[in-house]
Structure formats: structure tokens, C-alpha cells
Specification:
The complex is a heterodimer. Chain A is mainly alpha-helical. Chain A folds into 2 domains: about 100 residues, no CATH class; about 220 residues, MetI-like fold (Orthogonal Bundle), CATH 1.10.3720.10. Chain A contains 13 helices and 4 strands. In chain B, about 35% of the residues lie in helices and about 20% in strands. Chain B folds into 2 domains: about 220 residues, Rossmann fold, CATH 3.40.50.300; about 140 residues, no CATH class. In chain B, the strands form 2 sheets. Chain B has an 8-stranded mixed beta sheet, sandwiched between helices. Chain B has a 4-stranded antiparallel beta sheet with strand order 2-1-4-5, covered by helices on one side. By secondary structure, chain B is an alpha/beta fold. The chains are: A mainly alpha, B alpha/beta.
């Protein structure tokens, strides 16, 4: 088990390096392959309508004339030790961990992401708890009462949940519960450290909206998984032992049915941590999703690159955790 | 009063295709310390019978369309009419079951020891440590080497034979008085089969429990069973002691089973004679004797009795019952010709094949039997 975890950690580090190479290549290699020279590349990192000297200065600051390997090394080193962007008299310092510096907003990328992260974290984790509990329990009940009114009804709702987009359900919920009946008025983000009660209250609508979509998906997945598991031979063995039906379902059925759900859960959560763009935009939450959207709209390359790296980091880490959890649950995986 | 009395047991499943009569009026007794072998082809109702006894098929099962009537009396307590909760309490403690494929019957995520302890703790209020000791003790008794170490292994770390031993240990954890083994050796290779059968026989002697072995392998039955129940299409074809059924079988279906079994004690002068046709659909059971479409002897009975009249179980000897319209003397005469090793067997075989072809042709011409859509109903 220990060796399994160590091996998995090493793989993860390797994977992160690969991710950084690919991200770097997307931003610095592919434009060159498409025929851009370093001057044209540099032009995209300065503000609108730049002067020729500003662009040349930027070319120097970003070291765009150096070989790509050297540039990549600078980029990696910046994450560890920070970077000085030099061009003669003007020096811009980006403190470690330096995930790039936005010359458009004149600030390093990392602190901006750090500021946005708690919002996304609050949103994603809260919603994840909701949808995991809600989706799995509805799925289990549906499977056990297959063909009943409850099953048909909940699967119908689940189908609606899967089909309806966030900006629809989100706006409807805002209209109903924020304006018509102001149970949750003024949905704005309040840090948990400032006022935990208000933090939770203001996040209820985003949580429920986001969780509804995923809960629907998970209910369907869980139902299918449970139906399959409950017809396994080991379930019959559990019953033959004289176990109470509740224990048969939970300890023997659900435990086996949950493993594929866990895999998908890791992926989904990892993805969401990189920014829940639709939910954050619908509810005006200043999280990573909104940060990403703004960065794209402003064509702010360092910011986009930073957020891509961070999102990839979350997915890789989430997958590693899932793999380790999987090994904890299923002894056949531990090798 | 016998320990287990099954009386006129019917198990039916409502399906989209129709009513499946998996068990149709089954009665038998089983005494403590005796072993009953139930044999028959796939879909003859063997497994359904055992699952019904264990209460794993119940009329109250929601949405399953299962209907059970008749009586299953375990020490004079009727399980069919008892509450599900009562049957659950008996399950695993007073009666236990061993399944066919030990790999899929054991939970892959729990250690073997945990699964045995769990079975013990359901019915005994003991600590985890005590249950674990019990598991180790049981694993040792069923012949697992180094039980103190192997108790923490998972099923995938066990070999096939060891898994079945572990299943047996689990079944025996609460000293059951009735042990049902549903094809316990089918998934194992031959050398391991013999070991597992020996183990069941030894443990039975030690625990004094009653055992039902369900199998389609007559060799298994010959080795371990005191009594043999031959099932066909959910009914009893023949029931008697091992000696009766193997040496003086009265039912043509039993003859067919015996003739299709390879034997070492008979010179290989003749080929194995399989029973022609396939088991009937349990939705459209043939009229009269369910075996008549595959039987060679309706002409010997005469008339259309075999296809119109359901044969009742007739006592042909002490404790030996046969459900066939053939007269007892005729049964004995025909078996004397058929019995492997008899001088006339080879000749009879040739004759029989010819007769079979004739009957088959006649049958095909006569009518399309409803038994043609063969739905194999093996309850799982």
C-alpha cells in the first residue's frame, strides 16, 4: 500500500511536469509554428495600441528571443524562485510562486488567483457535498424501488436536471428565492472568515443550482450501478448469511457500486475547482471561473496560462487522490 | 417427524413471457445427519428449490413477481408462512448455503476473515476479536493452511478450492442444522472437487447436520448422497436411496441421466447415450408427463396416456418413488436391458436410436409442440 502511494506520487509529479510543458508549448511554441515571430508574440503581451518601443521592450522582458528550452527553464524557475522581467532601466519583479505577470493589469497572476480561489473552493466543495449525498441516496432508493412511482418521478427529475443549463436553473432560482420571495437576498460572496453564517446563506442558491445538475447525473449513475451490484452473487451470499437488508444494501451493495462513482467524482470536482464559469457568472461570484472569463475577454495571456496550469493541477491531484482512495476501497487494486 | 419437510411446494415467477412454474408440487423429507442429492438438468428447478428453502425467494419480494405456495417445515416451523424477519434469523444460523462459484459469491472488497466473522456476528452477540478467533478456527477446520495469516487475505488471493473452503467455513460459522450446497464443485477442477466433497462429508459427520447437495453431476451424488431426488421440469421424477436410484432406477429420465454418464467400471464397448432434445420451457410445460416428448417409451405405456395424464409418484419399493406410467415390471425389464454392462445394452442402444429417430419424425409431423421455445429458467 505504501509503495503504491509512493509510486502514484512520483507519477503525479511527472504528470505535472508534462502538463506544464504542454501548457508552455501552447502559449509559446504553437504561435511560432503558426508563423509568428517573437515581435508579433510580444505585441500580444502589452496593452492595446502599443508603441514599437514598448513591444521591443516586452520582447526583451519576456526573453522571447532565447531558445525555447531556456524560456521554459525561466518559466519553471520563476514558479520556484520568482522572476525579474528586465529591459534596461525598467525592472518588473514577480514574487514566487510566479505564474506569470500580466502587463495589461500590471500585476502578477498568482495573487489574483489566490484571491479568487476561496470563492471557487467554497462553491465547488459545498456543491460537491450536496450532490454526492443527494445524488447517491436518490440513486440507491431508485434502484431498490425500481419501477415504482418514486423511481419514475426521481429519474424524470434527474433527466430534467441533466438537461437544464445552469444559467437557466440559476436565474429561475434567483428570480424565485432572491427577488420574489427574498429568502436569500443579495447573493454576494462573503468570506467564511468574515461571517460564516452569511457565507453559507449567500452560497445556498449557487450550491443548490450547481449540485442539481451533478446530483441528477449521479443519481442516474448510482441507480445503474446499484441495479447491477444488487444482482451480484455476493449480494445473495450476504442475504444467505442472514444479514439485515439494510446492511446488505449499504455494506455489500453500495460499497461495490460506489467505486465507479468515486472516479467520476474526482474528475468532476477537480474540473470545478479550476473554475465553475457558468455558475460563477450567473451568480456574480468573483471566483476562478470569472477570473478565467475576464482573462479570455481581455486576451490576457499570462492570466489564461496561469489559470490553465492551476486547473490542470487540480485535476491531476484529484485523480491521484481518487486512485489512492480506490486502492483503499478495492484491495484488488493494491499491487 | 423429519427435520425438513417440503410439502407440495410451488414456486412461480410472473414474467413478461408468462408464468414460469419453476417448482411444481415438490414434496420430500430430510432427516438429521442424512445427505440428499438433488439432480436434474439446468432449469429443472433444483436451485430455485434451494433458494426457496433458504427464503431467498419469497412471495413478499416486491416487484419480483414471485409466488410460493405449499409448506417448507424446518423442525415443524413453516418457513413459507413465517415472517421475512423470522426467516432471516434462521438464515445463516439454522440453515446455511454454499454457492456454485466461490469467486463471485465472496465480496471482493472484504477480507475472507471479515466475511466469516460477519456471518458469525449476525447471529451471535460477540466482539470482533471473538468472531475473528472463530473465523481463524473455522478456516483451520476446513483445511486452510496458516489460518492466522490467511484470515486477512482477500478472496482474490485465494485459489478456487480455498475460496470454496472459505465459503464452507462461512456457512458453518453458526453450526447450521441444515446445509444446502448448490453445485459446490462445479467451478472447481476435478482433484479439488474430490477434496471439497470429502470435506463436506467429514464436516457433516462432525456437525451432524442434514445436507442437501444440488448438482447435475451424478458422480458427486453417487459419492456423497444417502438419498437421491431426480427433478424434471420442477417436479420429482424419481426419489429413493442412492442404491435404488443408481441400481434400480425406474424413470426413463433417470435411465437417460445414467446412460449419459461416463463410467470407469464398465468396458467402453458402447458410446454414451445422451438424452435427446432439450429441457422443456417452464412456461409451456408439456401436457401429461413433462418428459414424454423426450421419452422413448410412450409406446410401451400405450395410448396417449403419457401426453395427457400427469403421472403420480408411485411407491415402487420401500422409500423409492417413481413418477412414470410404465408398470413396475416393465420398468425393471427395460432397465435390465439398458443397464450399462448388460449384454443387451449395446443392442438396445442401437434399437433405441432407431426408435428415437422414428418417434422424432412422427412427432415433428404430428404437431408443433409448445415446448419448442426453450426458455431456460435458472433462478439466480
Amino acid at each position: 500500500m505504501i509503495t503504491f502511494i509512493i509510486r502514484r506520487l512520483i507519477t503525479t509529479v511527472f504528470l505535472l511536469v508534462v502538463v506544464s510543458i504542454i501548457t508552455f508549448a501552447i502559449f509559446f511554441l504553437i504561435p511560432r509554428l503558426a508563423g509568428q515571430n517573437s515581435y508579433e508574440l510580444a505585441a500580444q503581451y502589452v496593452g492595446r495600441n502599443p508603441t514599437r518601443s514598448a513591444i521591443l521592450q516586452m520582447e526583451q522582458k519576456l526573453n522571447l528571443n532565447a531558445p525555447l528550452v531556456v524560456q521554459y527553464w525561466h518559466f519553471l524557475w520563476g514558479i520556484v524562485a520568482g522572476t525579474h522581467y528586465n529591459s534596461g532601466p525598467s525592472v518588473t519583479y514577480c514574487a514566487p510562486p510566479c505564474f506569470g505577470y500580466s502587463f495589461r493589469s500590471q500585476q502578477p497572476v498568482w495573487p489574483q488567483m489566490v484571491a479568487a480561489l476561496p470563492v471557487t473552493l467554497s462553491l465547488a466543495i459545498g456543491a460537491a457535498v450536496l450532490w454526492l449525498i443527494g445524488g447517491v441516496s436518490v440513486g440507491v432508493l431508485s434502484a431498490l424501488r425500481r419501477g415504482t412511482l418514486f423511481d419514475r418521478f426521481s429519474m424524470g427529475v434527474a433527466l430534467a436536471g441533466v438537461s437544464l443549463p445552469i444559467f437557466f436553473t440559476g436565474l429561475i432560482s434567483l428570480e424565485l428565492f432572491s427577488y420574489k420571495w427574498p429568502i436569500f437576498p443579495n447573493v454576494t460572496y462573503v468570506p467564511i472568515t468574515t461571517n460564516p453564517a452569511l457565507w453559507a446563506r449567500n452560497l445556498v442558491l449557487p450550491w443548490v443550482t450547481l449540485a442539481f445538475l451533478y446530483a441528477a447525473l449521479y443519481a442516474r449513475l448510482t441507480r445503474a450501478g446499484m441495479l447491477e451490484t444488487m444482482s451480484e452473487d455476493f449480494i445473495r451470499t450476504a442475504r444467505a448469511k442472514g444479514l439485515r437488508e439494510r446492511n446488505v444494501v449499504v455494506r455489500h451493495g453500495l460499497r461495490a457500486a460506489l467505486t465507479p462513482i468515486l472516479t467520476i467524482f474526482g474528475m468532476d470536482l477537480g474540473l470545478l475547482l479550476g473554475g465553475a464559469i457558468l455558475t460563477e457568472t450567473t451568480f456574480s461570484l468573483p471566483g476562478l471561473g470569472q477570473f478565467t472569463l475576464l482573462a479570455i475577454q481581455n486576451q490576457d495571456f499570462p492570466e489564461i496560462m496561469g489559470v490553465v496550469l492551476l486547473a490542470a493541477f487540480f485535476i491531476v491531484i484529484a485523480n491521484m487522490l481518487v486512485d489512492i482512495l480506490y486502492a483503499v476501497i478495492d484491495p484488488r487494486v493494491r499491487v | 417427524m423429519a427435520m425438513l419437510e417440503v410439502r407440495d411446494l410451488h414456486v412461480q415467477f410472473r414474467t413478461d413471457d408468462g408464468l414460469v412454474k419453476a417448482v411444481d408440487g415438490l414434496s420430500f423429507d430430510l432427516e438429521r445427519g442424512r445427505t440428499l442429492g438433488i439432480v436434474g438438468e439446468s432449469g429443472s428447478g433444483k436451485s430455485v428449490t434451494s433458494l426457496a428453502i433458504m427464503g431467498l425467494h419469497r412471495s413478499s419480494d416486491k416487484g419480483s413477481g414471485t409466488e410460493i405456495t405449499g409448506q417448507i417445515r424446518l423442525d415443524d416451523e413453516d418457513l413459507v408462512s413465517s415472517s421475512a424477519e423470522r426467516v432471516r434469523q434462521l438464515r445463516g444460523s439454522k440453515m446455511a448455503m454454499i454457492f456454485q462459484d466461490p469467486l463471485s459469491a465472496l465480496h471482493p472488497y472484504y477480507s475472507v476473515g471479515a466475511q466469516i466473522s460477519e456471518a458469525y456476528r449476525v447471529h451471535n452477540k460477540v466482539s470482533k476479536q471473538v468472531a475473528r478467533k472463530r473465523a481463524i478456527d473455522l478456516l483451520g477446520r476446513v483445511g486452510i493452511p496458516q489460518p492466522t495469516v490467511r484470515v486477512d487475505d482477500y478472496p482474490h488471493q485465494f485459489s478456487g478450492g480455498m475460496r470454496q473452503r472459505a465459503m464452507i467455513a462461512m456457512a458453518l460459522s453458526c453450526d447450521p442444522e441444515l446445509l444446502i450446497a448448490d453445485e459446490p464443485t462445479t467451478a472447481l477442477d476435478v482433484t479439488v472437487q474430490a477434496q471439497i466433497l470429502d470435506l463436506i462429508v467429514d464436516l457433516q459427520a462432525e456437525f451432524g447436520s442434514a445436507v442437501i447437495i444440488i448438482t447435475h453431476d451424478l458422480g458427486v451424488v453417487a459419492e456423497v448422497a444417502d438419498d437421491v431426488l431426480v427433478m424434471y421440469a420442477g417436479r420429482v421424477a424419481e426419489h429413493g436411496s442412492g442404491g435404488d436410484v443408481f441400481l434400480q432406477p425406474g424413470h426413463p429420465y433417470t435411465w437417460g441421466l445414467l446412460s449419459s454418464m461416463p463410467r470407469l467400471d464398465v468396458a467402453r464397448l458402447e458410446r454414451l447415450r445422451p438424452i435427446r432434445g432439450t429441457p422443456p420451457s417452464l412456461i409451456h410445460v408439456p401436457s401429461g408427463c413433462p418428459f414424454h416428448p423426450r421419452c422413448n417409451y410412450p409406446p410401451q405405456v400405450g395410448g396417449d396416456r403419457c401426453s395427457t395424464e400427469i403421472p403420480v409418484l408411485m411407491e415402487t419399493g420401500p422409500g423409492h418413488r417413481v413418477a412414470c406410467h410404465l408398470m413396475l415390471a416393465k420398468q425393471q425389464e427395460l432397465w435390465a436391458q439398458l443397464a450399462p454392462g448388460s449384454a443387451t445394452a449395446a443392442a438396445a442402444a442401437a434399437e433405441e436410436t432407431a426408435a428415437a429417430e422414428e418417434t422424432a419424425a412422427a412427432e415433428a409431423a404430428a404437431s408443433a409442440e409448445p415446448g419448442e421455445d426453450v426458455t431456460e429458467v435458472e433462478a439466480t
